Structure formats: structure tokens, C-alpha cells
Amino acid sequence: MSDTQDIALGIDFGGTSVKVAAVRGADILGEVERIVTSDCQSADEMVARFGVSIAAWRERFPELKAVGIGVPGAVDVDKGVTYNLTNVPGWRNYPLRERLGALCGLPVMLDNDANCMCFAEFAHGAAKGARNAVAVTLGTGVGGGLVLDGKMYRGSDFAAGEIGQMSVDYDGVEGPYGNTGALERYIGHRQISAIAADLLEAAGRDFTAEDCDPRILAQRATEGDEIAHQVWYRVAGYLGSTLGAVIYLLNPDTIVVGGGVAAAGEVLFDPLKEKLRDVLSAEFFERLRIVHAQLGNDAGIIGSAALAMESLRAGELRA
Amino acid sequence: MSDTQDIALGIDFGGTSVKVAAVRGADILGEVERIVTSDCQSADEMVARFGVSIAAWRERFPELKAVGIGVPGAVDVDKGVTYNLTNVPGWRNYPLRERLGALCGLPVMLDNDANCMCFAEFAHGAAKGARNAVAVTLGTGVGGGLVLDGKMYRGSDFAAGEIGQMSVDYDGVEGPYGNTGALERYIGHRQISAIAADLLEAAGRDFTAEDCDPRILAQRATEGDEIAHQVWYRVAGYLGSTLGAVIYLLNPDTIVVGGGVAAAGEVLFDPLKEKLRDVLSAEFFERLRIVHAQLGNDAGIIGSAALAMESLRAGELRA
User: Which of residues 212-231 of A touch B (CB under 8 A)?
Assistant: First the structure.
């Protein structure tokens, strides 16, 4: 087993900002560094910027063993290549690991952001101690990650975990790939607002766009607003149906729910648990842990660092 | 790696008959022995009968290394205990591995029949060479098994692979556990007959129960009957919706479709592939192998033997 004192650098590459920090286990060492994504005009420029950043962190932590990067899009984890990144142009088929490795002389690993979040919660967060964990992130879209038999599961083309593309209705609304009933088209941020607008209108209430924002809806539900409760009840119905299917397929012990929309808390979790109790056998439901993600905005940094250390230990990474 | 010349005994424990044979790789050695399940009045009696059978097979093949048993129901693979078997009374919490091991002196492993079928196809059949394979069996009900990253994946309570319980419709027909939209309730043997009856009636045709049998429906569709085609098109629509969800979640390279209903062949596979092309991105669809199970009725024997050898090699089995 590993030395838990090992330190890796975690880079959480987001559409608007990149966050960088040294990580030891679950602990972020020092203050998180932020780089504005749009400050760099090209992938090469961004890599050069990463190189400067890594050099500075190594000066503070000479014992840094590896660099992990979580990116917002599709990657080839084995080759260390980004296929393309959502909302960040110029990264199609970019050999990020090779370029950055050559620059900094450390082993580099990259993975997509949903996997980093999932692994962070498994290794150091809400899913600690799980053997089989499913993480789902609720935000603009719906994403996910899988740890199976204690290891990150990525699928044959590093594309596993697309919970948002799973169908809740064989005859439903089309998703981005023609996939009828794509969960994301039912409980994405925008769709939650649309459910609220429909219900408020049907009730003859005056309302603004703000009244339909998931954050406001969570607050209102907590305060006892009936329509806001109905919105979350519907969201939980769709999400629970898909998670039920995931559970029948994978028989996990832990489900982690995170992302901005999950900040709604109990007003979402209570009806979600109710739905899962309804669609699962009693035995199954009793054995399952359904937990809120713990690491929040730090999950990307902690997870990318943890995956890099894990790969290093498994002998999959070289400088 | 293993000696491919190793021989294990495979036992396919079914609701009506038990089939036993020595297996070397994909080859069944000699003639399959059949035991009528109802000939034994209790689990103990059945185990005694197994003991007699194993002794006889060892006389012919003294090099037998292990015994694998596939059972029709829920098991604890680690403990070697059957929870309960479908259509076979008297097996609740029965320590099958311990009892049989004590009797025959060989390492014994047990698993459920769907996993045995899946592993057989992965190790020696239609999914050979796969890294991530999903097997689905279509019959009275709908079952499944998963090989992930080259290993049998069983989940936290050995209950993974329940494709028939996954939802095709969040608001649909209830399955056995209150699970709305359970696939099995749409494309089980009986449900296929009901679809046929509905369509024949709507068309004003005279028909008998036999006309609604999946075997006859397959034959008629092959002969060009339009209504029979429509039945398979509908079955493929439900199945494809669920398999699409499985593919988004697991990103497998191979899907194996087997079981009695899958004997329909191209009249099912053609619309199934069409549906999957519709719901998957082009890239995803092109990379995927969708294949017919190859080992048919021998899959249970070959798979149970193969899983036993695999466990023995991994050091998980003792006599």
C-alpha cells in the first residue's frame, strides 16, 4: 500500500477557471491557485502556464510525486490525450500528458472531471469505505462516475458514467444523440426551471425567472412552499427512476449525489429516498447508502491528485 | 496464466433438470449427464446425488480440478450459500459449497445462472476478446450478466446484472419490486404474446394462442408477415432503449443477446441494431459489437466450469 504522506498536484481544469493545489490525501496544502481559462489563447499557451504553476508548487513542495488533471470533456486516459473539451476551444486530440510531462518532468495523468469528482468522494469523501459507488452530479447537465470493485471504472472508450444520457422514457424527449428520454432533458438546471414555470402558471401564480431558479426553489421548499416541493418531488421521480435502473444493473453499496443542483439538500433527498424505497426491494433499499457529496468545489482538485497517485502506485504512470 | 488443459466439472442447476459435464476450455468432454430436479426431495438429497455424479466423473477424469455450479436464483458467491432458488423449494440459505465440498473433496464454487452464461460467452463464446461485455438473456423473464475490465462483476450483494428490472418508463407498468417500467414486464415471453394478440386483434385477424408464441412469431416474421415484424420491432424498441441506457452507463465493447426468445434471430437483431443506431452517437455505435450468444444450452455448464477454474487460479477457492 501507499505512503499516505505522498503529495500530488491536483489541477481542476474548468470552463471558466483552472484551480491548482498540492494535495496530501484529503488535504489541500496551502491556498488554491486560480488561473482564468480565457487568459490563455491556445492549448500550448495553457500548457506553458501550467508549467510555470507546477514549477512554483514544486518549489514549495519538492516532494511532489505526480500531477493529476481533471478536464471538462472526453479524454483517452491511457494515451493522455484530450478528445475535445466542452466550452474550451482548441483541445481536440491534444496530447496533454506528453506535452506537460516533457515540460515539468513529473508523471502526469488526466481524466474527465466527473471521474475525478467520483474518485475524490470514494477515496476521501462521502463514499469512503465503499466497494461499489455511483456518483451523480446535478448541474447544467447531469453527469456521473463509477468506482467498481474499488477501482475507477471507465469503460472501453473512457466514456462510462453518462447517467444524464440514460433513458427515463423509451418514448420521451430526445437527448443530444437522439437518445429518447435522456435524463438530462428532464432534470438539467434549465428543465427544473421549466417544471417550476409550468406548475406556477397552472396554479395561477405571478412569477419571475428568478422564482424558477433551482437555488430559489430549494429555499422556498425549505420554507414550506407547496409548489416548490412539487418541483423537487418531480425531479426526484425522474432521478430515482434512473438511479433505480443503475442500482438493478450494478448493485452498488453507495450512491453519491453532488453538483450545484444537489445543494437543494433534504427537499431533494427526502423524495429521492422515498422514490428509491418504492422501486427497490426492501432488502436492497436497506443496504444502500444514499449520501450527499462532501467535497464540493474541492472534489476536482482532490480527485485528480488522488487518481494520479493511484495510477502511480499501480505502475501506470511514468514521467 | 493458466493451463488451458485444466478440466473442471460444470453443473447447470435448472428448475426442471440439472446438467453435468466435464469441461476443458470451451469443450464439453463426453456426453452431458442429466438429473431430473424433482427426483430429489430436499437440498441434502440433491447434494448427495451431486456427490455420486461427481465421483463418477472423477473416475473418468481423475485430473478434475474444481466443480462449478450455476443456480437459478440468488447466491452469496463468497460464502458459497444459496439465498433462494426460483421454482426450486428448500434452498433458502443453504451452504451448498461447504456441503458439497466436504462430500467430494474438490474446490466448489457457485454463482447464478445468468453470470455463468455471461462468463461462458466472454471466455469461450460470442464475447471472446471483449474487455467489457454485457450479456442479456431473453426468456420467460429478462436477465443479464456483466464482465467488466475482464472480470465477472457481481456488485455488492452478488445481485448485479438485473437488466430485466431496469425501467424503460418512469411512469410505466410495475415490476415485481414496485419498479415502474421494469423491462421484463414489456418483453418477457408472456408480454411478447400480449403485444402480438393486441396487434392481431387490431388488424381484425383470427388467431390462436399459438400464433402469439414468440417462436411462431419469429418464423412468421422471417416469412414476411407484417404484424409479426411489428411485434419484433416493438420488442426491439423497448430492449434497445434499456440497452442504450446500459451502454451510456458502462461503455461496453460487446453486447451479447441470448436466451430462448433471442432465437428469433435477425427479425429481432435488425430492428435492435436500428434502435441502438438511433439512440447512440455514431462513434459509439460503430465501436460496439452486438452479437448473438453462441453457446446456447451449453453456456451454463461451460460458464460454471470456467468460473470455477478462474476462481481457483485467482486463489479464491479451496477444497
Answer: none
